[in-house]
Every structure is written in C-alpha cells, then in structure tokens.
Amino acid sequence: MKNRCLTLVEYQCLTELRHQIRQYLHAGELAARRLGLQPRQHEVLLAIKGLPAGIRPRVCEVAEQLQIQHHSAVELVNRLVSAGYLKRQRENGDRREVLLALTPKAQRTLGHLADYHYSELTEGAPELAVALRKTLRPAARAQGAAAS
Predict the structure, then answer these.
(1) Which of 62, 84, 65 is nearest to 75 (CA)?
(2) Could you give the 3-state DSSP secondary structure of residue 145?
C-alpha cells in the first residue's frame, strides 16, 4: 500500500465513519451488558452461531473470528460454559477434538441481541452508509489518479 498525504476532508470522512461504527458497536455492548453478558462473550456466541457451513465450532475458530489469542478465547469459552451459555462436546471419531455448542439459554439471549442489532442497523444504516460513501469517494478518486 502506497502512502499518500490525506486531505483534511479525507481525515474528517475517516473520523465520521469510525464514529458511526463505534456508535453501533457501543450500543450493542450496552445491550449485551443489560442481558448479563460481557461484549466479548456476546461476540463469541455470535461467532459460533454465524460460522459458515462446513466450519466446525472450535476454540481456534472463535479466536480467529474475534481476532484474539487462543488462550484468550479459551478463557472466554470457559466463562460462557460456567455461565450456562455454551457446552463442550467431543466428536465420536476423534476424542481430542472439542466442539462448542450454544445452549438454549445462549440461543434465547442471542436472539434478543440479534433483534436489537437489526433494529439499531435499520436506524443507523443511512448515516453509516453516507459516512462510508464519503470515505470511499476520495479514496476511489485517489486510486484513479494514481493509476493514470
């Protein structure tokens, strides 16, 4: 990636985009706390629920999805198991492999949070979309000029 000098307007666009994203994330963090979860715990549950088909729900996938160290993911999983949100299950063929499963409690909590997040996105999407377009517009012009 080539370094270039950003204009004040480009910095302002980046700032607004990050602000919009942060507002959305902060609202979700507060919602998770109201339901008794730490924000990272909610992210673990969401990561497991939303894994693509064919990806097995293991601690290493949680770590990758959250972009955290494996030992940090293990600690989050341990706390969620203790709180009744996750179960560990061993595969029949390979007893070394431990899969993670959401409990009914986790499914209910995640459902409430997903509803909340979708309503937040519906409300905030226009501002977020505007901020994203404004941010990408100068970047696209700069790339076009550099390619010429």
Answers:
(1) 62
(2) helix
Residue 98, strand partner residues? 90
Write down the pLDDT at residue 90. Answer: 86
What's the token pair of residue 93? 């063929």
Q: Is the pLDDT of residue 145 over 90?
A: no
Q: Is the pLDDT of residue 143 over 70?
A: no
- Residues in Cβ contact with 144 at an 8 Å cutoff, skipping those fewer than 6 apart: none
> Which residues have a Cβ under 8 Å from the Cβ of 101 and sit 6 or more positions away?
48, 57, 86, 87, 88, 89
Residue 52 is encoded by which pair of tokens? 């693509």
Paired with 99 in beta bridges are 89
- Average pLDDT in the 6-31 region? 93
Q: Does domain 8-147 have CATH number 1.10.3810.10?
A: no
Confidence at residue 6, expressed as pLDDT on a 0 to 100 scale = 86
Rounded to an integer, what is the distance from CA 73 to the centroid of its chain? 14
Alpha helices (H) in the chain, listed in sequence order:
8-34, 39-49, 59-66, 70-82, 104-147
Rounded (5°) CA angle 37-41-44: 145
